[in-house]
Every structure is written in C-alpha cells, then in structure tokens.
C-alpha cells in the first residue's frame, strides 16, 4: 500500500473512534450509521492484505471487518476484498 501523507489517521479504529465521538457530540447518534468503502485493492500485496501495519489473509480480514461491525454502527462495507481479475 502506498503511503499517503495527506491521510491524517494511521489506524482504522482510531479514525472510527473519532467519527463516533463527533457523531455523539452532534447529538445525532441515533440517526447516523457508517458506510465504509474499503477499496481493498489498494492494500492487497503478494496474496495478502496489509492494513494498519498488519498482514491479513482473506479470512483474517473478514474477521477484522466483523469485529468492526460489532463495535461500530456500520451499515455497509463496500469493496471488502480484491476483485477477481479475469
């Protein structure tokens, strides 16, 4: 994954925690759900996924996404994995 210095957050959970705090501070926590567009092709390398300085297999990444959905009000996740190239 190419590092983007304009990206202010290194870790997904850190970014989601900040988003949740902002939602709570706004008073709209009962009205807002989060959608993620992961664009997994951006962090797919050599048959695995490299995210937050961690290497994930496809199965490990699915477990990670499930943990996020349990912890945060995530309504949808798009582009979870690399699309099969034919």
Automatic annotation (TrEMBL):
<dbReference type="GO" id="GO:0006096">
    <property type="term" value="P:glycolytic process"/>
</dbReference>
<comment type="pathway">
    <text>Carbohydrate degradation; glycolysis; pyruvate from D-glyceraldehyde 3-phosphate: step 4/5.</text>
</comment>
<feature type="domain" description="Enolase C-terminal TIM barrel">
    <location>
        <begin position="4"/>
        <end position="86"/>
    </location>
</feature>
<dbReference type="InterPro" id="IPR036849">
    <property type="entry name" value="Enolase-like_C_sf"/>
</dbReference>
<keyword id="KW-0324">Glycolysis</keyword>
<keyword id="KW-0456">Lyase</keyword>
<dbReference type="GO" id="GO:0000287">
    <property type="term" value="F:magnesium ion binding"/>
</dbReference>
<dbReference type="InterPro" id="IPR000941">
    <property type="entry name" value="Enolase"/>
</dbReference>
<dbReference type="GO" id="GO:0000015">
    <property type="term" value="C:phosphopyruvate hydratase complex"/>
</dbReference>
<dbReference type="Pfam" id="PF00113">
    <property type="entry name" value="Enolase_C"/>
</dbReference>
<comment type="similarity">
    <text>Belongs to the enolase family.</text>
</comment>
<dbReference type="InterPro" id="IPR020810">
    <property type="entry name" value="Enolase_C"/>
</dbReference>
<protein>
    <recommendedName>
        <fullName>phosphopyruvate hydratase</fullName>
        <ecNumber>4.2.1.11</ecNumber>
    </recommendedName>
</protein>
<dbReference type="GO" id="GO:0004634">
    <property type="term" value="F:phosphopyruvate hydratase activity"/>
</dbReference>
């Amino acid at each position: 994954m190419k590092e983007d210095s304009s990206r202010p957050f290194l870790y997904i959970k850190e970014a989601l925690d900040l988003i949740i705090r902002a939602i709570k501070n706004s008073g709209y926590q009962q009205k807002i759900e989060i959608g993620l567009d992961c664009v997994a092709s951006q962090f797919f390398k050599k048959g695995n996924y490299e995210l937050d300085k961690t290497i994930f297999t496809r199965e490990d990444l699915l477990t990670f996404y499930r943990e996020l959905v349990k912890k945060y009000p995530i309504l949808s996740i798009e582009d979870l994995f690399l699309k099969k190239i034919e």
